[in-house]
Amino acid sequence: MQTLLDGADELARKLRARDKGVVIQVCRACGYAPCACRCPGCEICGGSGFVKRHEEGQYEGRALRYAVEPCPNYASRVIRQAVQTGKEMGGLFADEVMKLDWDMVKPGYSDGVKARDAVKACYEHGSGMVLMFGTFGQAKTLTMKIAVAQALRDGKKARYAKLTQVLDDIRLAYDEKESMMTALLERIAEWRELDVLALDEMDKAAKNSDWAMDRIFNLIDDRYVLAIRGRSITLAAGNWQNLNELNGPFGYFRSRIEDNRFAEAFASVVYLNGNDGRKVMPQGHRY
């Protein structure tokens, strides 16, 4: 299967060859010279599967530039192909990607239906933020995994992760000796730019260092801005027993969701206090 990385390498090879004087024939299918018809007929990329993006940011006086990124239509197609081949992706097992469905959260076991309805409404809206908190066994994890599985099947960039896993991933980039700052910013950008990001067990990250908490704060803030612009969905869950326990970046998350100006995207804070579904779930239920 053609991957985004393979396609980028092939495009770069052709462009280098063209720069050295090699004549590249125009593609008959789409009329775009350095094309391998990865995205035929696409008006965004002209068939190449990639689009140029020029962004400049400033971090301690260092300019950042990004020249090429996958075409969104091509990226969506690659994700759908990966789903069809039964791969683990987005923090989910292969069977979860293929089978998880909204109807798996059933009434009568816990308050999980409240979580499912809020998350499903946010997903169908296309952007927004949902914060779930309360007791154990309320289908918070299952609901977020369902949203991620649905997003992957729809060809979106989506990821489920415990917040500590996100922090470990960011730390890994920070520990790299060469191009440390560039690697760090690129790793953070990967999490920030997901179409759907589901963060679980947020309450367990409260004892992290100031550096880690600052990363959480910035990620939540960036995701909030993207949600306002209609470009992302962020789901979060923790086992806080009441809203007074939410402080630091988590209190900031709650504050943003409850902001009356948050009118362009779906926003919800859901309190779950039903029976522990794990204790009453029928035997044989795999999810």
Question: How would you portray this structure in words?
Answer:
The protein is an alpha/beta fold and 287 residues long. The protein has 2 domains: 4-84, no CATH class; 94-280, P-loop containing nucleotide triphosphate hydrolases (Rossmann fold). It is 43% helix and 15% strand. It has 10 helices and 9 strands. It has helices at residues 4-19, 72-84, 94-99, 112-125, 140-153, 163-175, 180-192, 210-228, 248-257, 277-280, and strands spanning 50-52, 57-59, 62-64, 68-70, 128-134, 158-162, 196-200, 233-238, 266-272. The chain has a 5-stranded parallel sheet with strand order 6-7-8-5-9, with helices on both faces. Helix 8 (210-228) links the parallel strand 7 and strand 8 (233-238). The longest helix is centred in the C-terminal third of the chain and has 19 residues, at 210-228. The two termini are 30 Å apart. Mean pLDDT is 75; it is low at 1-5 and 54-66.
